[in-house]
Amino acid sequence: MSIYKKVGIVMGSDNDYEIMVEAAKALREFDINFEMTVASAHRSPERAGTWARTARDRGLCTIIAGAGAAAHLAGVLAAETTLPVIAVPIDATALHGLDALLAMVQMPAGIPVATMAVGKAGARNAGLFAVQMLAVEDEELAARLSAFRKKMAHEVEAKAARLDARLKQDGLC
Amino acid sequence: MSIYKKVGIVMGSDNDYEIMVEAAKALREFDINFEMTVASAHRSPERAGTWARTARDRGLCTIIAGAGAAAHLAGVLAAETTLPVIAVPIDATALHGLDALLAMVQMPAGIPVATMAVGKAGARNAGLFAVQMLAVEDEELAARLSAFRKKMAHEVEAKAARLDARLKQDGLC
Amino acid sequence: MSIYKKVGIVMGSDNDYEIMVEAAKALREFDINFEMTVASAHRSPERAGTWARTARDRGLCTIIAGAGAAAHLAGVLAAETTLPVIAVPIDATALHGLDALLAMVQMPAGIPVATMAVGKAGARNAGLFAVQMLAVEDEELAARLSAFRKKMAHEVEAKAARLDARLKQDGLC
Amino acid sequence: MSIYKKVGIVMGSDNDYEIMVEAAKALREFDINFEMTVASAHRSPERAGTWARTARDRGLCTIIAGAGAAAHLAGVLAAETTLPVIAVPIDATALHGLDALLAMVQMPAGIPVATMAVGKAGARNAGLFAVQMLAVEDEELAARLSAFRKKMAHEVEAKAARLDARLKQDGLC
Amino acid sequence: MSIYKKVGIVMGSDNDYEIMVEAAKALREFDINFEMTVASAHRSPERAGTWARTARDRGLCTIIAGAGAAAHLAGVLAAETTLPVIAVPIDATALHGLDALLAMVQMPAGIPVATMAVGKAGARNAGLFAVQMLAVEDEELAARLSAFRKKMAHEVEAKAARLDARLKQDGLC
Amino acid sequence: MSIYKKVGIVMGSDNDYEIMVEAAKALREFDINFEMTVASAHRSPERAGTWARTARDRGLCTIIAGAGAAAHLAGVLAAETTLPVIAVPIDATALHGLDALLAMVQMPAGIPVATMAVGKAGARNAGLFAVQMLAVEDEELAARLSAFRKKMAHEVEAKAARLDARLKQDGLC
Amino acid sequence: MSIYKKVGIVMGSDNDYEIMVEAAKALREFDINFEMTVASAHRSPERAGTWARTARDRGLCTIIAGAGAAAHLAGVLAAETTLPVIAVPIDATALHGLDALLAMVQMPAGIPVATMAVGKAGARNAGLFAVQMLAVEDEELAARLSAFRKKMAHEVEAKAARLDARLKQDGLC
Amino acid sequence: MSIYKKVGIVMGSDNDYEIMVEAAKALREFDINFEMTVASAHRSPERAGTWARTARDRGLCTIIAGAGAAAHLAGVLAAETTLPVIAVPIDATALHGLDALLAMVQMPAGIPVATMAVGKAGARNAGLFAVQMLAVEDEELAARLSAFRKKMAHEVEAKAARLDARLKQDGLC
User: Fold this and answer.
1) Pick from F22, D38, F38, E42: which is nearest to B159 by CA?
2) Which residue of H has its CA nearest to G53?
3) B38-to-B12, B32, F157, H150 alpha-carbon distances in Å
């Protein structure tokens, strides 16, 4: 069992689970605990507000909020806590996530929200960003992050190595 | 003094006054009372929530909310009241109000927000829309709206009449 | 049978039925009567104009207009009646509803149109917004809306409760 | 005095005059008569409709319509006449004419509107397009258009010739 | 056999045929002759230029040009003829036709191009616009256009009539 | 003198100083030390890389990176350190910061960048976000943040109180 | 075996292979050698930097870089070499390549990147552009390019010839 | 006097001079000769075509083309020569250069155009890109480019050094 503080993951709708689980997986890779829930800024404002206001006392160190459309969730939570809030815009409408992105990233001065990319990449990076925050003062975790980075770099090399086979298959070398 | 219910006008920042006063002026033209205040969804969430939750009991019949950037105000108020909420996106960032527009209009199913155009035209129309709502069951007010519409049509004719002079001045007829 | 006034739902093409029926369903949930028709601002301007001009006398209290592409329907109807007009932009072209959204929401000062989100969420919210307008002076309907809001909040809690099962299934807790 | 049929120029607001006068000037350069008026699709729908329905009988051969914001004017006129309608989107809102452009160009099948560029270039081209339509069966006018094209080409050459002076002035040759 | 002049339809690639045939069908409905070809502004500039320069002498009265991506075809043809050129932007890239639309509609002053909607609706309207141009001085064709408009209006009514059945099927009336 | 770790602020060009100084001011308000420098991902890649690679060892706890245009700075730094990197898109081109925003926020999975709003609001929020990160484990700082939030809420109330005077001045109450 | 210098093709992820192989195919058509690899600006910055810094010494004459999302690859390589760098934006996110396009094309003054179209057309053109660069001083290659252009023009004619069959099949001539 | 081949700079209008002179200045810094002219794809297609077709024989090694609006110039020139063509989109309309950018960068497969950033940065980079092309086989020029890059890096350092003074002036250190 991890000794780290817990990260809170919240999504506006359970339709967002397939996206937001990427944040959870990233945290799990680094043995960071998390709690995950659904809370809509619009359909359950009281729940969302209470969840945010009690987040620090529940031992959360940061909040990851994913939502689509007019995605107010991250901003609404950020207004109710001084914990860092990370936002994941979700492509849930005809406008392909541009609505959620702008509704999250363009926060007015005073209440910051840290926005990630639209969709799964953003959710995974939200998890990794939380790990990086925890690693600032945790040398062991920082070392694991460095190892993780090296592994990614090696995977790039491995992919590069496999290109030749594909080029041969396509008759290009 | 008017016998109509009151409209609530709220803006996210007093920087929005020059825009939102257009809503007030439209209401005044039809002798509709209003109250106007500043409440930020992000900087003063409690104030915004309380204002919305008590709006019906304070005798408000509709709420007009203007905000810029990641404009959550209208959605946040709409989540706390079943009164109709009209949104006015304000051009307050480098993205020229497209952020506020999408953050307001793309509300998820369940909590409607009625969005107007970006800026002064939208604010004026928010006021007029409130008048039109009140006029549904008020024949006298409906008659005043019809007269207002006729006056606008006449003004178009008057503008058309003045075009000839401009064309002559430009040597085009 | 309902004692409430009727809502008019109009769409630019019967291709829009699957979207616009969401408005009808929302009204039915609150026992609000409606009439639904097809009227194109472009292909049947006379029909659209007549329908709007007679709307108040036919007992309509508000109009919900859905259209795609250069969506002029809501604006054209709004120009012919002082009833409130609610617009639902529909994703019907390569531009994914951005065209319909801007063609509806950016109405010039004088003739308001209350725009909802693109697509089904917008259509459902158009119906709910009409209910909210009717509930301003109808305490019983307002109470039903409050109950509806509570039910939505409970559904959010139920969804949250089911998340644990999904996390277990994904081996994440 | 010209023997050609007349072109109708209509704008949604007299604020659009400085833009739309470019269409008039282009017509004048080719001695084409025009009538110019203001008619708002929203503020004066009856006037706009009547103007369009009687356009053919008044001897108009084509209609040039300029409007900004949710620019319905061209589509509304096109729905009421089988004369060709040319649209000029005007940059009149925070969205810089993108709203007017999409509201004009994305007309649904059945009612065509021929859209030009946003602003003055579009207005001038609307006038020139009307001239080109008239020149299809008018060899003398076609010859004048060819001469106009040659003149434009010569002006390009003249501008090119003046570049050297500017380069010298900037110490670049 | 038709006595009308011929319309030229040209597309940048035969991939565009399924879109551009809509223009041909519209012309056929009104017994207007057409010639249809492929000419790329980029891959076959000489062919495109020659085709445009000889268009008037070949008896064409107008040109309909469809293209996708950086759609230069319409502008390139328009630069080589004084015949009216109608442009149809085609959704052929990741940017969903916004690229083709802007590359066609934003023509600089001097060389007009009349742009229609992106895709099939635009292609059909291009054909209809050509018919409307021919009908300016052809009362019989104008009458057929009026009948066509009436038929469209009747179809709208027929669609409206069928809505009730769908509502019953969905249990909504 | 503060006992907190230091925040690094880096900008792509000294033209960005007026924007990025807002981050510095926010840090100063909470007595957080910072170092500020210029390092361009493109014009000085070695400097940028070295700065990022040594950041943790220099005692930085987080990095705030502001850049305009194809804003690669934040991503380039994030690739070289496991410290949290906060990005501030700057409106520095004809595309009004949309280029910088997308170039920063759309980071691929693996290397997170936490993006703030375009411009001054984003820079100030970047500073505040850094404070919030430091306050996760620092109760005194968390308390100061709570006080700061309360002060913002009071300022909203003060602004609201001043609205009446403006309404009177405008003759609206 | 070719006597020309080699072109380097690099992509941010092997997911981009299907797109980027189009560049390789174009080079092969002109017997230009290439090397192809994977190097991520973010996941393997050292690899990317080293690859770029040694590119000239390895005999590369130009670099083609394809990437999606916040596509920094081309800019990062360009910062490390004075060889010409050609960028291919890839549609890899919900924003359909607009993010990659702006992240590549909007390079600040000093470090040029030559951007092609989003996707396969862009990748093929990147290869052809490299050929055109090599052909500046190579008359034989220039002649082959001219022949290639003529072949494209003939293909356009062949496609045009086949249109008649399609029109007959559709009953349109 | 330089021994290098000449670069051709062409702009669609002399209004573009202030932008395009940046390309000339960049070439001058490296003693590359250039010729500069005005040629409009639309207003002077013959001139533009002839200029491009004869470019190679006139000793040009590459072409830099700047244009705004529906910017066809680069594509039109590229279709007429196998020399490399570099495009500079210019912000000349209400759409702020997005139109020119898409009209240039989205070239279909077969005819490449290398697009730079919108405006002055793009023009300067077009010149620098031409220098980089010439430097591929010219070691002395490559060395000068390397020195130029070093100078840019030093300027960044100098700017960084001056930041402290500004922070002191603002009372921030």
Assistant:
1) D38
2) H146
3) 6, 20, 7, 53
Separation of CA D102 from chain center: 17
| Tokens matching residue A121 | 């990449």
Do the chains contact at A41 and B76, CB–CB below 8 Å?
A: yes
User: DSSP 3-state helix, strand, coil percentages of chain H (rounded to 5)?
Assistant: 50, 15, 35
Q: How many CB atoms lie within 10 A of CB B156?
A: 23
- State the Rg of chain E over Cα: 18
Chain C 4-43, residues with CB within 8 Å of chain A CB atoms: none
Q: Which 3 state secondary structure label does DSSP give A126?
A: helix
CA distance E50 to chain G (A): 13
Question: At CA E89, angle to CA E84 and CA E94, rounded to 5?
Answer: 160
Most G CBs within 10 Å, among E28, E29, E32, E43, to test the G interface:
E43
Question: What is the token pair recorded at E7?
Answer: 């319309």
Nearest CA among H82, H91, H27 for reference residue H57: H82
Pairs of CB atoms within 8 A across B/D = 60
| E1 CA to centre of own chain | 22
Smallest Cβ–Cβ distance between H75 and the set E68, E70, E93 belongs to E70
> If you compute the radius of gyration of chain G from its CA atoms, what whole number of angstroms results?
18
d(CA E65, CA E39): 9
DSSP letter string, G19-79: HHHHHHHHHHHTT--EEEEE--TTT-HHHHHHHHHTTTTTTEEEEEEEEESS--HHHHHHT
Q: How far apart are CA G126 and CA G87, in angstroms?
A: 7
- Cβ distance G76 to F72 less than 8 Å, yes or no, reads yes
Residue entry with tokens 């069908």: E25
Strand-pair partners of D87? D65, D115
Contact A98/G at CB under 8 A: yes
Using CA atoms, how far apart are residues G89 and E156, in angstroms rounded to an integer? 44
Which of these, E80, E85, E46, E83, lies nearest to E67 by C-alpha position?
E85
pLDDT digit string, tens, across residues A108-128: 999 999 999 999 999 999 999
Alpha helices in chain H (DSSP H): 17-29, 45-53, 73-78, 98-105, 120-135, 139-169
Chain C neighbours, 3+ Cβ pairs < 8 A: A, B, D, E
User: Do B10 and B51 meet the contact criterion of CB atoms below 8 Å apart?
Assistant: yes
- Taking CB atoms and an 8 Å limit, are G69 and F107 in contact across chains? yes
Laid out side by side, the sheet with E34-38 consists of D34-38, D6-11, D60-68, D85-90, D114-115, E114-115, E85-90, E60-68, E6-11, E34-38
User: In this structure, what token pair is assigned to residue E133?
Assistant: 């141009």
For B94-108, what is each residue's pLDDT tens digit?
Answer: 999 999 999 999 999
Structure tokens belonging to residue A58: 């529940």
The whole-number mean pLDDT for each consecutive block of 10 residues of chain C, a chain of 173 residues, reads: 81 97 98 97 97 96 98 98 98 97 98 98 98 96 98 97 93 88
Asked if C45 reaches chain D (Cβ–Cβ under 8 Å), the answer is yes
Task: Say how many residues make up chain C.
Answer: 173
Task: Give dist(CA D35, CA D65) in Å, integer.
Answer: 12
Cβ(F70)–Cβ(G105) below 8 Å: yes
ipTM value, please give it: 0.97
Distance from CA of H103 to the nearest CA of G (A): 10
Q: Which two tokens stand for residue D159?
A: 């501008």
Tokens representing H85 are 């063509």
Judged by 3 or more CB pairs under 8 A, whether D touches A is: no
Distance, in Å, from the CA atom of F76 to the CA atom of H118, rounded to the nearest integer, reads 23
Q: Say what the pTM is.
A: 0.97
Q: Pull the structure tokens for residue D23.
A: 């269409």
DSSP run (H or E) holding E131: helix E120-135
Which partners does chain G have (≥3 C-beta pairs < 8 Å)? A, E, F, H
Contact C99, D102 (CB under 8 A): yes
